[in-house]
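Standup notes, protein team

Yesterday: finished cleaning the Amycolatopsis dendrobii set.
Today: Nitronate monooxygenase structure.
Blockers: none.

Input for Nitronate monooxygenase:
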Amino acid sequence: MIRFPKQVCTALGIDVPVAQAPIGSAATPALAAAVSNAGGLGTLALTWTDPDEAVRRIREVRRRTDRPFAVNLVLDFPIDDVLDACLAEEVPIVSTFWGDPAKVAARVKDAQLIHTAGSVAEARQAAEAGVDVVVAQGWEAGGHVRGQASTLVLVPAVVDAVAPIPVLAAGGIADRRGLAAVLALGAQGGWLGTRFLTATEAATHDSYREAVLAADLEDAVHTRCFDGGWPDAPHRALRNSTLTRWEAAGEPRAERPGEGDVVATDAAGNPWHRYDDMIPVPGMTGDLEALAHYAGQSAGLLRNIAPAAEIVADLVG
């Protein structure tokens, strides 16, 4: 069993230092509740939901667990109405990303506030804003990536910069070895996204899960390819036909190969285009391989699908 510091667990009301990162459309209430029931911190990704849908998901988590959970909001988007709905529901933990948490810190006074930073400067800014926990996101991470430093060097630098505020580490953590490594660097726990894409409770299309499990380390590419809906935000995704064609064309910002192609349709009949900021989810049909497959370099270490509770248990002992 990994032995770990208790500060962040006490602050967040969790038993083990494992947090499920907000993996976009794959982050379901069932997943968040399962992680929380296993002693970790489950998270809902609510940036792109309306307030009514946010409330529905929060209440569904509460029907499934009485343990603490988090809601995540990306500050690069208008989130005031959704934040108001979350606070009215008295969510215990709010996590923020991609912006200055000072803009919401005063409002999140009755909940714990977590902010994800990609640099030491950004971590210091979060500490000055009064956040309760900082997530240091290394460059290896999947999805949208804020900074350029690797987890190995960023985590101890952030720990030193924001002490005594507890730090969670993100980027490259796939198993108990990775968790033990970031604890040795001074982090109080791990913030894992890619690992939970393979959880049975995640809204990950089977083809997406299979791509994650089949990936090598080099297949997770840091790019700006899938920017539809979130321009100018670098991210890490698995190499696929869209990314390969775009790179072969010289990575143009306009008139990209297949620009405007509808490559998939979701269960509600909504079209999704090549280069959209959208992952394959259950119920989709079409050329799902061409959609964004966000994943970190830790995908190269993953080889199994498992319930979230089993993933948490495997991480800590």
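Follow-up from PR in the comments: The chain has twelve helices and 14 strands.
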